Structures are given as C-alpha cells and as structure tokens.
Amino acid sequence: MPKVTSFYTSIGGAAEIAGVSTKTIRRRIACGDLPAYRTGKLIRVKVDDVENTMMRPIPTMAASA
After folding, report:
1. Closest CA to 45 of 19, 16, 13, 2
2. How many folded domains does the chain comprise?
3. Residue 2 belongs to a domain
4. Looking at the DSSP assignment, which residues form a beta bridge with residue 43?
5. What letter does residue 19 receive in the DSSP assignment?
6. Which pLDDT score, from 0 to 100, does residue 30 have?
7. Is residue 64 situated within a structural domain?
8. Structural domain span for residue 50
9. In-domain check, residue 16
10. What does the pLDDT average to over 40-63?
C-alpha cells in the first residue's frame, strides 16, 4: 500500500484553513501564488501549500531584539 504524503482540500476548505474568503483563494490560484489541481470539475489545493503560502508568522518585539 503506497504511503500518502499529501492531503488535498477544496477551495472552501483552503479558505477555512487560512481564515480568508474563497475569493482570496481563487485570486491566489489565478495569479500563480497558490498551485491548484483540477480533478474532473473539482479544484483541489494541497493543505501544505495553503499553510506555506497563506500563513505568515506575526513579527514580535522579541524577534527583533
């Protein structure tokens, strides 16, 4: 049995993970910032790609000191 290394989600799921609207996810896909994959009529994105592209660390004072 092959090992699954990537998990995919829908545009709505990606928006929920990132805390943004589905329109934002679609814009990021359209401009090429977020890779997407079509499966029939469905569009899927990798959860890892969503986390890496849409999530940014919040700078703190401790990091700059």
Report:
1. 13
2. 1
3. no
4. 38
5. T
6. 97
7. no
8. 10-58
9. yes
10. 86
The band of 63, judged by pLDDT with boundaries at 50, 70 and 90, is low
pLDDT tens sequence across 3-49: 667 799 999 999 999 999 999 999 999 999 999 999 999 999 999 99
Strand order in the sheet with 8-10: 8-10, 42-46, 37-39
**Between helices 22-31 and 11-18, what is the axis angle to 10°?**
110
Please give the pLDDT value at position 6.
Answer: 79
Asked whether residue 46 is assigned to any structural domain, the reply reads yes
DSSP conformation letters of 32-59: TSS--EEETTEEEEEHHHHHHHH--PPP
The three-point CA angle 63-24-43 to 5° equals 115
Asked if the model's pLDDT at residue 61 lies above 80, the reply is no
Number of residues in the chain: 65
**Beta-carbon contacts of residue 20 (< 8 Å; ≥ 6 apart):** 54
